[in-house]
Amino acid sequence: MVLLLFVDLDPDLAALDALGGFFVLRTGAPPRGPLPTLARAYADPEVDHPREVYGDPVIFRVRKVAQGLGAPEPRIAVSVAQQALAARLWSVALGAAALYGRLPDLDPELLHWDPDGSAPDDLWLSEVRALPVGAIGTVVRDGHLGPLESALRSRYRVSPGLLRGNAGSALAGAWRQLDRWARDHHRPDVADRARELAVGLLAEPGLAGALDPRTLRRRSCCLYYRLPGGGLCGDCCFDRPPELPAGRRGTPPRS
């Protein structure tokens, strides 16, 4: 059993800065002006919400990813965009839980998202309030990944198994990076907390079966190999890239 030494969350979540990358979470008001909340991003596009800047944030993000990668199929961009956001959410939650022994409330109504931005300036938490680490599955899996999956599947044809594999892979990736940081900085307590939480989460409904529990190799493919010049990810279910139909090699994305 891991002993947690609780530390109060600070208003800037400054401890996460040491982890860098996807683990950092901005707090307060975004300097570029109001951004949509993730709650609004997940909402049914038919719901009458004013979207002043980006229209539908989910569609905006997928199009941005498709253009940046030269994705020949929309579902590839959907997969990459979803896995990146899942990685951000898991990284912030797992990093805070491991460092602080507490979890910031990542309620979608509190978390503002810039679909045109990159980490760490893509997410802004308007209010920092603490939750117990035991809430991490409810906060991320139920509060974000489920609604995000529904939002994407309402807009695009994409497999739920692919999205859940992405969610499991994103969690495992955050865990590996956090474990590496903890060992480099002689923080076995952080490594132990991260491991206990990640192993428990990967065994829970919604993520159970997404990865091989021994190797953390995923049981679905994220489709990255279908990008021009793309290859296999480190945890891919394939040993070598499947053959693509000749007409789909390097085809530019449709507008």
SSE inventory with pairings:
Layout lengths: L25 E2 L10 H5 L14 H13 L4 H27 L2 E2 L6 E3 L9 E3 L4 E2 L4 H20 L4 H25 L3 H15 L53
Helix pairs in contact: 2-3, 3-4, 3-5, 3-6, 4-5, 5-6
How would you characterize the overall build of this protein?
The protein is mainly alpha-helical and 255 residues long. 41% of the residues lie in helices and 5% in strands. The protein contains six helices and five strands. It has helices spanning 38-42, 57-69, 74-100, 136-155, 160-184, 188-202, and strands at 26-27, 103-104, 111-113, 123-125, 130-131. The protein has a three-stranded mixed β-sheet with strand order 1-4-3. A two-stranded antiparallel ribbon has the order 2-5. Helix 3 (74-100) packs antiparallel against helix 4, helix 3 (74-100) runs parallel beside helix 5 and helix 5 runs antiparallel to helix 6 (188-202). The longest helix has 27 residues, at 74-100. The protein is globular and about 50 Å long.
Question: Any descriptors?
Answer:
disordered N terminus; mainly alpha; 41% helix; 255 residues
Q: Give the C-alpha Rg.
A: 18 Å
Structure classification = mainly alpha
**Helical content, roughly?**
40-55%
Q: In this structure, how is the largest beta sheet organized?
A: 3 strands, mixed
Determine the strand fraction and express it as a percent band: under 5%
Cα distance spanning the termini: 53 Å
Could you state the order of secondary-structure elements as H and E?
A: EHHHEEEEHHH
- Rounded mean pLDDT is 87
Estimate the global geometry from the Cα principal axes: globular
Low-confidence stretches: 1-5, 248-255
